[in-house]
Design goal:
This protein is mainly alpha-helical. The chain is built from six helices and no strands. It is elongated, with a radius of gyration of 19 Å. The structure holds heme C.
Length: 138
C-alpha cells in the first residue's frame, strides 16, 4: 500500500511540475529580462521607448527605418512566430530588411522570447492574446 501511495504522490508531483512548466511556456518569455536585452541591443536603432527613433537609425538614415514597436495598430497584428523569427534570424528571414540583424549568436532562444515579450508590452493600444493574424509571412 505504502508503495502505491508513493507512486501516486510521484505522479501528482510530476503533473504539477508539467502544469507549471506549461503555464510558464504559454507566457512566452519574461518582459523584465527582455527589457535588459532591449536596452542593451535594440535601443540604438529602435529607440529608448521603442518608437523606432534610436540614434543609430537617425544618424545612418536606414531605409526602411527601424520598426516603431509602440504602434499597436501594426505590431499587434504580427504573429508570435514571425516576431520570434525576425529577432532570432534577422529581418531577411521573413522578407523584411537585412538592416534588422539576426541575434541568434548573441542571445539564447529563451532570451529571444524574453525580448519578444518586452516588445509586445510596448504596443499602444496594448496587445491582447488573439489579436495577431496567425499566418506566416506578411
Ligand atoms: C541596426 C539597427 C537595428 C537593431 C540594432 C535592431 N533592429 Fe529591429 N529592426 C530594424 C529595422 C530597420 C527594422 C525594419 C525592417 C523592415 O521594415 O523591413 C526592424 C524591425 C524589427 C521588428 C519588426 C518585425 C515585423 O514583424 O515587422 C522587430 C520585432 C524588431 N526589429 C526587433 C528587434 C529587437 C528585439 C532588437 C534587439 C535584440 C532589434 N530589433 C535590434 C533595425 C534594427
Amino acid at each position: 500500500m505504502q508503495k502505491t501511495r508513493h507512486v501516486v504522490i510521484a505522479a501528482l508531483t510530476l503533473a504539477l511540475i508539467l502544469a507549471v512548466a506549461a503555464i510558464a511556456y504559454s507566457q512566452k518569455g519574461d518582459p523584465k529580462k527582455g527589457k535588459r536585452i532591449y536596452d542593451a541591443y535594440c535601443v540604438p536603432c529602435h529607440g529608448e521607448t521603442g518608437a523606432g527613433d534610436g540614434t543609430r537609425g537617425m544618424i545612418e538614415q536606414f531605409d526602411p527605418m527601424p520598426r516603431n514597436h509602440t504602434e499597436g495598430k501594426y505590431m499587434n497584428k504580427r504573429p508570435d512566430d514571425e516576431l520570434f523569427d525576425v529577432i532570432k534570424e534577422g529581418g531577411k528571414s521573413r522578407n523584411f530588411s537585412h538592416i534588422m540583424p539576426p541575434w541568434k549568436t548573441i542571445i539564447s532562444d529563451e532570451e529571444v522570447w524574453d525580448v519578444f515579450s518586452y516588445v509586445r508590452s510596448l504596443a499602444v493600444p496594448s496587445y491582447k492574446p488573439g489579436m495577431a493574424e496567425e499566418k506566416k509571412g506578411r
